[in-house]
Amino acid sequence: MNRRDLFRTLPAIAVAGSANAAPAPNAVKADVVRLNLKHTWTTVMSSSTFRDTLHVKLTSQGITGVGEGAPISRYNESAVDGKKLVESLAPMLVTADFSQFSKILAQIFKKVEGNWAAKAAIDIALMDWMGKRLNVPLYKYFGLDPKDAPLTTFSIGIDTPEMTKKKLEEAASYPVLKIKVGLDSDEATMETVRSLTKKPLRVDANEGWKDKDEAVRKINWLEKMGVEFIEQPMAAHLIEEAKYIRKRVHMPIFADEACLHPSDIPKLAEAFDGINIKIDKCGGMLEAYRMIQIARSLGMKVMMGCMISSSVSCTAAAHLSPLIDYADLDGNLLISNDPYHGVEVINGKLTLPTGPGLGLR
Ligand code: MG
Fold first, then answer.
1. What residues have a C-beta under 5 A from ligand 1, the ion?
2. 309 in the same domain as 244
3. Domain stop point among 101, 118, 135
4. What pTM did the predictor assign?
């Protein structure tokens, strides 16, 4: 380019430069959304008729990514605190380049302790944004085949025999059920369920059993009831007890409350056959993906679960589900006011939306 050509192009560069000089700042929105449960939900941890989750919207370049995190009370998290955290990160997020989502999330993880559900909401919103920006569904972004998505269980909370019967009728279209146990009434609950259905069952004790020999006894009994596997028989920190139980039972044992983050997995490999990953627990899709890879490298089975949440969080998990063995992604099926449509369950199988990003409608 000679001098004359250069001067001829300068006005065009200046005009383009002025148009780019002050791009509209990104928008950051955080809301607490109350999700109403179809039935009162009881586990050994709590009983409730609604759940509040944190919803995050991140907008840049005219594209809005949507995310959700379901705060887990066991880890002292709340949706209100999550909203405050996201608002405190807004000054950083409004000037960020969302296509550098890995860098943004690394900065947030370094800066913020805990608040895993809020981190998950930000991560999901960024991933949804990126998928929309690239015009690909997230399963495709991760290189996955949606046909590999597994069946999902439908969960039956602890309840009276009459209500258990009603819930089983409502779960008629789900080929595999997950039953919550961990109370003195376990035998009665399981006998009620077994008298009403022959479906494969998976069982979650949610750390409910206090004694390792009691756990062995109950699991040996469950083995005769056609149960495929069990989650978290005893408290999360009781790793030696988990090893003791594993040596004395036949069914696979999964760590859930004992397995929060990627760094937890190596120490669990001797005590458990698999792990239950939840996006709300680990802090997002990227962390969940990392956990799947670590568990695989240690020869462990992988399931993905969810909290009670809307289709945002369940769909995010479902986009990674072609990588896993078992899914328990029914949080959105347990609520009556889901603000979105996303993943669907057809004959028990997770069916991923094909729109860009999460593909939510
Ligand atoms: Mg569990």
1. 204, 231, 256
2. yes
3. 135
4. 0.90
